[in-house]
Design goal:
alpha+beta, two-stranded parallel sheet, 29% helix, globular
Length: 68
Amino acid sequence: MDSGAEVTHFLLYLNFETYLNNAGERLAEELRMARAAKLPIVMAHENDPERAGCEFGRFFSTTPGDLI
């Protein structure tokens, strides 16, 4: 549904599953489009293990190289 609202930011929720499998590939492509559109990126890093929280350093090995 298109509400007609203008997108002003991209919220990137980071947890253990970020960038994994097909969903991760789709997320990476959406993030590339957001960067191309020069949208501000707001990152929220999950720390709670019950919500798939993880150490931030994990993202240096799972994030596609062009997005680091």
